Structure formats: C-alpha cells, structure tokens
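Reader question, answered in our methods column.
A reader sent in the components of a multi-part assembly and asked whether the whole thing could be modeled at once rather than chain by chain. We filled in our standard form and ran it. Here is what they sent:
COMPLEX SIZE: two components
ENTRIES:
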Amino acid sequence: MQAVRGVKDVLPDEAPNWQFLEKTCREWFARYGFDEIRVPIFEATGLFARSIGEDTDIVGKEMYTFDDKSGQSLSLRPEGTAGVIRAYIQSGLQREALVRLYYQGPMFRHERPQAGRLRQFHQIGAEVLGSESPLADAEVLVLTADLFQALGLDGLQLEINSIGCRECRPRYTVALRGFLEGRAADLCENCVRRTATNPLRVLDCKVETCRTHTAAAPFIPDHLCAACADHFAVVRGQLEAAGVGFVVNPRMVRGLDYYTRTAFEWTSDRLGAQSTVAAGGRYDRLVEQLGGQARPGIGFALGVERLLLLMETRPATPPDLFVVLAGEGAEAALAPVLRAVRGAGLKVDRAYGGSMKSQMKRAGKSGAPRCLIAGDDELARGTAVLRDMVAHSQREVPLAEVVAALK
RNA sequence: GUGGGCGUAGCUCAGUCGGUAGAGCCCCGGAUUGUGGUUCCGGUUGUCGCGGGUUCGAGCCCCGUCGCUCACCCCA
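And here is the structure of the entire assembly that came back:
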C-alpha cells in the first residue's frame, strides 16, 4: 500500500515546522483582529463554479468532484475563500459592518504533482469583509509582511497590481484585445486562444516572444477609472508609509475570476516554477454573486508546503525528564511520581522495558537534560537517582521531592 | 493533460563487459553481572518499484505499468 499520488504525510520530524508556522500565523492574525473560522472540506460543486469561475482551469479540470449517495454533486474545496464567503452569508455574519476571518486547512486540486505542488496541499488564509477602503488592502499586505518576518523569511518579493472594477476593466479588456488581435501572428498558440477567452492572461505569459511583443500593449494601471486609480494610489502610499517594499507588476493577473482592483503576490526565487508563496486580492462583487448582500472584501492565502520549503527545519523539543526503571517494583513505586511530574507540566519520556543500559541509551538519545533512575536499592529507601545528563553528575532524591528538585 | 530524468536495505547511495547484491548511516546486542552521548566488536534488514519479454543466465537489455522528480501548463 502506498499513499495516493500527490499527497504527503507530515512525519514527526516535520511536525514541529508545521506547528511553528500555524502558531505564528494564529498569533499574528489575532494581533490584527482576525478571528478563526472553520468551514467544511467539501461543498456543493456549484459554489466553486459560481465563485472561482466556470471557465477557470481550477473548476474546469482540476476539482475532485463526485456525486454523493443522494446524487448531489459535491467537490473537495480547491481553495478557501468560496466556503468562507458561503458561511459568512449563511450565518448572518454579513450583517456585521466589518468582519475579519482567517482559516487554515487542506485544499485539493487534481494537478500533476511537482515541487511545491501537491494534490492535497494546505493553505492558511484571511479575509476582511465589509470594507471597501484601500486601508484594508494595505493592512492585509502589512500583515503578510509581518508574518513572513516573524517566520524568519527574507528574500521574498511583493508584487502588486490593480486589475480594475466592473466599470473600467471591460473597457480595458476591449482595448487590450484590440491590440492583441493585431499581433496574433507573433504570439504563442496559447496566447492566441487566450486573446479571445481571457486576454489579461496573455500579459502573464512566460514565453519570451510573447513578452517582447506585448511590451507596448496597454497596461491596466494606465486604464483604471478614477475611483480605481485613487484606490490603488492609496494602497501604494500606505505600503510606503508602513515601510513595506513592493513593486508594481502591471502584467500580473489572477487565476480566479472573482478578483477586482488590488491583486498581489508574494514570490520567492528559491522555489523553481512554483514560486508564489502567498497571493490574494480584492473581490468586491463576490458576496452578492453568491447570493449575499453587496459586500466588498479582500483576502489572501498562503501555501503552507511552499513556505515550509523555505523555512529552516526546527528540531523537536526534547523531554524535560527521562525515567529509567531498574527494579521489580519500580513501575508501581514510580507511578505517582510520573503523574506528579507530568501534572507539574513537565514533558516526560520513558521506555517500557529493556536493560538499564539500553534505557540509558534511550535517555541520552532523547535529549532530556535530566533522567530519573529508579533502582531497587534507592526505592527501598524511598528515593531515586536524579541524574544531570549534561553535567554527568547525579544525586539521590526522596520520591516526594522529585517535582521540587526538577523546578 | 504534455515532455525529460530517475526507481537497488528504514535513509543516502555503489554495483564494471549481462554471471545470481554491497558500503555508510540508522537500529539491536556486547566490551566482568545498576549508568547514556565517544571508541571498539558483533548482528538484523532487500519481491533490485511492479508485470511481461529477450537470454543458458537480467539489478544491468527491450516493452508496458505505477511512483518520484523537473519543466510546460496551472496556481498558493
């Protein structure tokens, strides 16, 4: 038996890294006023089709979709925002003026596995719902910058763009398509197709000739309506004020249909092709698109596995004490001591048998700074040996005083 | 979904011209009977990814398949 393709076990030696990442995120989300929300791993397929977009690759060919026993079409979530917005509407949270939420958990996409790309992968994300203010956009970005700093990650680059709103984007799209149609002969096959379906993505193409031939194309930031341009200017100004470095990438587009205005991406140059480590943007129409009241929102998600690839490996924390039992009655005599030590909040490791020598070896390997050796002679006196594994010294301690001796 | 590279012990890998499989690490035991991390001695471990084919004989050659990996694509 082996695990299904594209999924991965998190083994004990990796768990500390996951825990550190999760804990750091929770802490920083709390500092910025976000509350946790936990939503299901599967939803009605229609939710994703309506939010992410029927024509996106994610919905079109990458979802794990199945019919349940009642014949309803369900899908494992390919991203987190759709479910969070659904819950936001359904629960009545949308009646609050402003809500900040964060979530974490597995997402599923049927893609060809690659470095930093799995079929079950994990995201941690956050959403600010109810404010159209560019201050919200900026604060979300500052939060991500703080988060990466707290995680000890440097060398990440922030790229931002504005992709306009329902007012200006259609006008821009027409202008861009006009430009691209005149140059179809110079573009790659994909881009010729995208010119018709999703012309913004042509700007995002990696093919060198496409990039050079679109160098003179109209770019979105120059074609924003006044409201979008103001919004984008405030976001940039706030980032500068907060001391968060960024570059405007006028070619950047998002893969999900629901984005409007601010779009951003944090990337690393150490991850090969899957360089995006976190990304997000504003989605001012999504809530009403899903049947809620008209509510603006902005959010992002970070890729846990990708971030972990960049982070230093954290060692597991060793136990505070290793207990070595070396006599017939040792187990019974030590039982209350074990409970007391653990009750005092200390981490205790032990073996369940074996020679004293092997138990000592285990004690040394465990990394415990001290070990408690309980042999017949000492137990007869109501004591045990407390050994300092670092100093190689030991002394006899009455069983009742073990907890105190460990403090 | 498309293409390239790779699958040998738990891990990292060696294995010549086809001749029947090795090292290091890890793990276990021991070095005078109750004391670890160093050192020394000893020991366990393989459907050579899987299935077929060629051959007297296949880890090695051929085909298929599964998996890993890198890139495309897509995206966090």
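What stands out: Chain A has a mean pLDDT of 92. The CA atoms of residues 67 and 320 of chain A lie 51 Å apart.
Send us your own complexes using the same form.
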